[in-house]
Specification:
The complex is a heterotrimer of chains A (about 290), B (about 325) and C (about 325). Chain A is mostly helical and about 290 residues long. Chain A has ten helices and no strands. The longest helix of chain C has 18 residues. Classes of the chains: A mainly alpha (about 290), B mainly alpha (about 325), C alpha/beta (about 325). Chains in contact: A-B, A-C, B-C. At the A-B interface, helix 5, helix 8 and helix 10 of A face helix 6, helix 7, helix 11, helix 12 and helix 13 of B.
């Protein structure tokens, strides 16, 4: 028993050690990981580590309005006298929540539908699922999110729903293409022969082989979700004031350009940093599951 | 059709809060808003095929007329972006791939990482501020200078109409106005496509057929510009279809920022004022544009990749 | 002077784990009009050696030393223009996988015409180019050359593609043809046809060939002289007949024994163990980890080449009779 356990743990470390080794083979991926961890820590602890936590909300102090960057306010203050550093930190909270909510709502159903459509590739419901997915894919995600958000009451939650609605079909298509090719593999046929249930085959045989592609897409998509969320906010269809949202901050700050550049430029830099971080991280995840790196 | 089932009375929204209830009721009846949802859907669907896409609550005109008025400006913008996109992405990607892991490659990589990460509307603001407002090189808003009359409408694309009718100064002015918004739309796709092209160039450089071409003594420029480029372009062009889709969507923000009188700005205004017929028309037309772009891309891919071309033929 | 003389060639590859020392100082030569074979297991450096001659080694390769002399000039030190001339007029290489060696998105005509056009110093007219292509396709025993020229690679069978590759190679193979396992990716009967064709062509053209194979049976009847490679070293060489009749190196003996025989002596045993890692290869003889006769000296020193009978050499301390071996 002991020996068995040990060797099992041994293969585990070996297996994950190899993933880590592949991930860190590209130093740029480590930068991405660092940026995302840093942003996540700031987002989680924002109420405790930011200098002026009250600036996150409905706080007005006109005596401090539109102050340029200084030691007291490293990113300056906005038109209401709120500290921008604090607001950017809270903005990360909103961006990361958006990513988490959108991806957790859209990835799971997208993947399950893709598995079903791919496994039962010649059945009528497979065609129905894929045609519906095609219709959604034909409309650019940003446009779909914009139009859905526009008919809802503008709010953070509705923006998340709108983006999620645009997102699931991409996972359905990805998983469908993997599943429909894997279902002809010998190990799937073998599992069918020994009488494994379709659920077992979909989730235990096909899904693990699609996991790498799914995880890669999830990390790369995180950046896109933030981008689209920011675009919604920019036109006023996302989170509403006084929620500290980076897109809204850029949009409102751009009225004071170029004199009070810091009001929009720092939130813009922050958003670029997060998206860049997720992209670099996504490349690392891609390396992790690719066989071309030895 | 989601638009139909959501809260907010379109008739009330159209007429404003102070309008008398009778007027709202009349408009509701006119728009069939009192009928069950599937009846409304039927009216709408039969309208689509007869050219009656409904009345815009905002402009009080048939949305089809609105769309056809505003669409050319958007098409011109997106075409310009698509051209800038390919004109820069292909050389950058080929160069980075041929010179993989050198200074040139790393520079292109950094440019493309940043290009992918900057939202198009931020690029637009930065371009406006620097090249427009700061250096006065490019105009900041609109399709033409205020003092210039648009060329007679033939295609609705100012540059092309200007050239056709011999108004070269108008065409040049229109072209000049296109540079910043088109570049703002193109930057993200350029970055992404250059990266994809680079990686397929690197991959194809190690293929046996490239080694065979080298060992046959073919000149390097023939290998790079002919034998390496064609297969390497295939994955990039496939992605290009998606990038056109994102350009169509991003045009909604870019037109807002550059005050571009296009269909996207019209659509965005419709969205902000819950003008349902106009929203639906906007989404439909954007979808159609995407399908058209996709079809063109498919044709290009099947030209580049004979395997796809012959597979399609044998299936027919 | 031999046509090609490879001297102490050392090539490695940079990978994430470090430097793979693949070719560990190999020596061999090819005379004019000679048919030379190289045998050995997969991944023993045969292809690397051939790619070094054509100067098409991968980007991550490292040339750590040695010379490849062509008519006495080191081709590793020629400039690109000089070597391109050799590629166009003297040497050609046929690859293992005929499907991978043809560009998938161009017709055979487009590819073939360019090869002919750029191999010639004079400007050729389209008709001349076409005539030459048809002639070479016929030499490669391809019927219907016009149909072949209009095809894309994926429309041809594996055997046809390899014949097309041979025809293309003939454009410039005026002195040396390198055939890297030209039939391995094909059916046995097709492989046999391809090898017969190659033999006929090199004999008619009176050129040299280096044939790589791990099919011992086929190579036996093809080449004049044979080199046996193991893990990036040449362990034995000599006239084909002598090496097959009287193999001296333990590796060669085991390799020949591992081929199934038609006489029905049971299933061959194969060679126990695996090729050592190129990352940290054994210091002495690279075969020491699998050799049934391994001695202490084998772990410490690299065995020199001993002449075991006339023109037949083996790099193994079993043949050390006190004299110093010929360190070739």
């Amino acid at each position: 028993m002991m020996i068995q356990k040990k060797s099992w743990a041994g293969t585990l470390t070996k297996k994950y050690g190899r993933y880590w080794y592949k991930f860190k083979s590209n130093k740029i991926s480590l930068v991405g990981l660092g940026v995302i961890v840093f942003v996540a820590v700031i987002a989680i602890f924002a109420p405790w580590i930011t200098p002026y936590p009250t600036s996150a909300g409905l706080y007005v102090n006109f005596s401090q309005q539109k102050l340029p960057p200084s030691l007291a306010h490293p990113f300056g203050t906005d038109e209401f006298g709120r500290d921008l550093l604090t607001r950017v930190a809270f903005g990360f909270r909103y961006s990361l929540t958006l990513v988490a909510v959108v991806l957790s709502i859209s990835v799971a159903p997208g993947v399950v539908l893709g598995l079903i459509a791919g496994y039962y590739v010649n059945r009528w419901f497979s065609a129905v699922i894929m045609r519906i997915a095609d219709v959604f894919v034909a409309v650019p995600p940003l446009l779909l999110a914009l139009s859905v958000a526009s008919v809802l009451t503008p709010s953070a939650i509705n923006a998340m729903m709108a983006v999620s609605l645009a997102w699931w079909p991409w996972y359905t298509r990805l998983v469908y293409s993997i599943a429909s090719s894997l279902r002809n593999e010998d190990y799937v046929k073998a599992a069918e022969l020994v009488g494994a249930s379709p659920t077992h085959i979909m989730f235990k045989e096909i899904f693990p082989n699609a996991l790498g592609s799914i995880l890669t897409k999830v990390t790369l998509d995180a950046g896109w979700v933030i981008l689209i969320g920011a675009a919604l906010s920019y036109v006023g269809l996302g989170a509403q004031a006084p929620t500290p949202d980076l897109g809204t901050m850029i949009s409102e700050g751009s009225q004071y350009l170029p004199a009070s550049w810091w009001i929009s430029i720092f939130p813009a830099c922050a958003i670029v940093a997060v998206i860049l971080g997720f992209n670099l991280l996504g490349d690392g995840v891609n390396d992790m599951f690719s066989s071309s790196i030895k | 059709m989601i638009a139909r089932v959501l809260p907010g009375d379109p008739a009330r929204l159209a007429l404003g809060p102070r309008a008398p209830q009778q007027a709202v009721d009349a408009l509701r009846a006119e728009l069939h808003l009192n009928d069950p949802i599937f009846v409304q859907y039927w009216y709408w669907l039969s309208g689509v095929f007869t050219g009656n896409w409904g009345i815009s609550l905002f402009t009080q005109r048939n949305v089809l007329i609105d769309v056809s008025e505003f669409l050319p400006a958007t098409v011109e913008l997106i075409l310009a972006a698509a051209i800038i996109d390919l004109a820069l992405a292909i050389p950058l990607g080929m160069l980075a791939g041929r010179m993989a892991n050198t200074f040139v490659d790393n520079t292109v990589r950094i440019i493309s990482y940043i290009g992918i990460a900057i939202p198009a509307f931020v690029v637009a603001i930065i371009l406006q501020l620097t090249l427009g407002y700061g250096l006065h090189i490019f105009p900041i808003i609109g399709r033409l200078d205020q003092s210039i009359q648009p060329p007679p409408r033939i295609t609705g694309l100012y540059v092309i109409d200007g050239l056709i009718t011999g108004n070269f100064s108008v065409a040049a002015n229109a072209l000049w106005h296109l540079v910043l918004p088109a570049f703002a739309l193109a930057l993200g796709p350029i970055a992404q496509e250059a990266r994809i092209l680079r990686s397929s160039v690197v991959e194809n450089l190690n293929k046996d057929y490239t080694l065979a071409e080298i060992s046959h003594g073919l000149p390097e420029r023939i290998i790079t510009l002919k034998y390496l480029m064609k297969p390497s372009l295939i994955p990039m062009i496939t992605i290009y279809a998606l990038d056109i889709s994102s350009q169509i969507a991003n045009a909604f923000l870019i037109e807002l920022i550059f005050n571009w009188p296009g269909f996207s700005r019209y659509g965005l205004n419709a969205m902000l004022s819950k003008d349902l017929n106009a929203i639906v028309a906007t989404v439909m037309v954007a979808g159609i544009m995407f399908v058209v772009a996709n079809t063109i891309v498919d044709l290009v891919v099947s030209y580049l990749d004979p395997r796809i071309r012959f597979q399609a033929e044998s299936e027919e | 002077m031999p046509l090609i003389q490879v001297k102490d060639l050392r090539v490695g590859y940079n990978v994430y784990e470090g430097l793979l020392k693949v070719l560990d100082g190999i020596n061999f030569f090819v005379e004019r009009k000679e048919k030379v074979g190289i045998i050995g297991e997969s991944a023993c450096g045969k292809t690397t050696a051939m790619k070094a001659i054509m100067r098409i080694l991968a980007k991550n390769s490292v040339l750590m030393g040695g010379k490849i002399l062509y008519d006495g000039n080191d081709i590793l030190r020629m400039n690109d223009t000089q070597f391109t001339e050799i590629r166009r007029k003297k040497f050609s290489m046929i690859f293992q996988d005929p499907s991978a060696a043809l560009n998938p998105v161009f017709t055979i005509r487009q590819q073939f015409y360019d090869i002919i056009r750029y191999s010639s110093n004079q400007r050729m007219t389209k008709d001349m180019i076409h005539e030459r292509a048809v002639e070479l396709l016929k030499q490669a025993a391809l019927p219907e050359p016009e149909r072949i020229l209009d095809s894309y690679p994926f429309q041809l069978s594996g055997g046809m593609k390899q014949r097309v590759n041979i025809a293309m190679a003939l454009v410039s193979a005026n002195e040396l043809l390198i055939a890297d396992e030209p039939g391995t990716a094909l059916d046995v009967t097709i492989e046999d046809q391809i090898l017969r064709l190659l033999k006929k062509i090199v004999e008619e053209r009176r050129i040299s060939i280096i044939l790589i194979s791990h099919a011992l049976g086929t190579i036996k009847h093809f080449v004049d002289r044979i080199y046996v490679m193991y893990a990036g070293t040449i362990v034995e060489s000599g006239p084909t007949e002598k090496v097959f009749k009287n193999p001296k190196h333990p590796y060669t003996q085991l390799l020949i024994d591992s081929v199934p025989k038609l006489t029905g002596e049971g299933v061959p045993e194969g060679i126990p163990g695996i090729v050592p890692s190129y990352l940290n290869p054994p210091h002495g003889c690279r075969f020491v980890t699998r050799c049934p006769y391994a001695m202490q000296v084998c772990k410490e020193k690299v065995p020199p080449s001993y002449e075991v009978e006339q023109l037949h050499y083996a790099s193994c301390f079993l043949y050390d009779n006190g004299e110093n071996g010929k360190d070739e």
